[in-house]
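Researcher: We plan to redesign the surface later, but first we want a full-length starting point. Tokens attached.
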């Protein structure tokens, strides 16, 4: 739905692609890669971040939003990759902001901006570029 909305609002020369990281080749390159509420579910954070970095043009940016899972009222104040106790029972990373940011630096990114989103479900927001 977000892609359909963006296609309506952006100029015609802007190309929007969506898919899984595995769907893209190393020869693909993009000015902007968005990861909205997905990175916390990917078990291999370092590998996935390096794939995203490789998809960026030289001056491209990576925009990431993840929830502050540790901030949920029912969450333990402990980092880790775990299955939720209720609802969808999905697995997700519960990390503090500084741990996310260390993953970004380890994957070869520079943090352009570290922002706070409007709600706990989109509280951690970053704009990154290649180091």
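Model: Full-length starting sequence:
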């Amino acid at each position: 739905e977000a892609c359909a909305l963006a296609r309506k609002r952006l100029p015609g020369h802007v190309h929007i692609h969506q898919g899984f990281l595995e769907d893209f080749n190393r020869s693909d390159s993009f000015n902007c890669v968005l990861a909205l509420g997905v990175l916390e579910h990917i078990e291999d954070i370092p590998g996935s971040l390096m794939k995203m970095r490789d998809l960026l043009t030289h001056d491209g940016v990576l925009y990431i939003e993840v929830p502050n899972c540790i901030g949920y009222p029912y969450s333990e104040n402990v980092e880790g990759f775990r299955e939720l106790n209720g609802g969808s029972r999905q697995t997700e990373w519960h990390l503090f902001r500084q741990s996310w940011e260390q993953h970004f630096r380890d994957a070869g990114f520079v943090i352009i901006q570290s922002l706070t989103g409007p709600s706990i479900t989109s509280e951690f927001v970053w704009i990154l570029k290649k180091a």
